[in-house]
Amino acid sequence: MGLLWWGAAALLLGGSSAHTLLYFYTGVSEPGPGLPRFVAVGYLDDQLFLQYDRRTGRALPRVPWAEEVSKEDTRYWQWMTQNFRDTERTFGVALVTVPQRHNQSGGFHTFQWRVGCELRSDGSKGGYSKFGYDGRDYISLDMETLTWTAHDPAAQNAKRLWDANAARNRYFKTYLEEVCTMWLRRHLAYGNETLLRAKPPVGKVTRRAGGNGTETLLCRAHGFHPKEIDAVWTRDGEVWAQDTFRGIVAPNADGTYYTWLSVRVDPRDRRRFRCHIEHDGLRHPLDLAWEEPGASQLGLLLGCSLAAALIAVIVLGLCLCKKRREGYEATTVV
């Protein structure tokens, strides 16, 4: 449950602003195979760019552009390593005290922290600092009032202690809105070829039969960057929301994104529907309809099949000729 809280936070915050620099920390009370006691990672937008390797006790870059950071600040990776080590020790204490406040002894528990900053599309800045316990919100910082909100009754003691340290809270706000955003801009400069490029989506509409005399049209868009995309169904040129569903915008391994949306229709109205897509990488919006395989496509498939058959015959003939020649040569030698 705790790891689900972490993953949902990554998706939510990654899509809420123009650019984000976020760090996620997770500690577990009972580590096991594939689940270390402490994990720390850094994300620039949706791209994992650094990770704390607990085996070596070092912060390491996960993408080539992240290695360039040390050219400007030679102490960067040393500083990040020390930060992760300090947090690991803090989490070790938290995984003892927080279960005690819940009157829990033993068992598997998680303690997590997501912290970072954002540069919004309107030029404004923001910061986040929220802790979680066993997959639920525990305590978070209100950036406006500089006070902590206890989401769990067991966090009231921490709230009293942290609210009393006003100087620390002001420093934390300055860090998130100034220092963190400074590094966000620097990282964007290093990774601009990957993170600031505009790559248009590739779209396609397919269909599948449904029940009660209906069918579903499915529109897929993939390979696009940045992640902001506007995709809707239209009927006769007007936006159509009835019986529509859509998936989240999710990252691909290459740093691009994909998404999908569907609509349930009467097969007789199929040709009235279009998947309308707008994206920064497109010079003009896409209006995609389902296309029935035409004669040209069937001809292409048939041509490919005949070509494959012809190649197979040629290869077989060459093999037979070679076999006969080898047999003749063997006979003359004997």
Structural overview:
This protein is α+β, with helices and mostly antiparallel strands and 334 residues long. 36% of the residues lie in helices and 32% in strands. It has helices spanning 2-14, 69-72, 76-101, 156-164, 166-190, 192-195, 295-333; strands at 19-28, 38-44, 47-53, 58-61, 110-119, 125-133, 136-142, 147-150, 202-209, 215-224, 230-235, 238-240, 244-246, 250-251, 257-265, 273-278, 286-288. It has an eight-stranded antiparallel sheet with strand order 4-3-2-1-5-6-7-8, sandwiched between helices. A hairpin with a 5-residue loop joins β9 and β10.
Estimate the helix proportion, in percent.
25-40%
Number of extended strands: 17
- Give start-end ranges of low-pLDDT stretches: 1-17, 295-304, 306-316, 318-334
Whole-number average pLDDT? 83
**SSE succession:** HEEEEHHEEEEHHHEEEEEEEEEH
List keywords for this structure.
alpha+beta, disordered C terminus, eight-stranded antiparallel beta sheet, five-stranded antiparallel beta sheet, 32% strand, 334 residues
Summarize the structure.
This protein is of the alpha+beta class and 334 residues long. The chain is 36% helix and 32% strand.
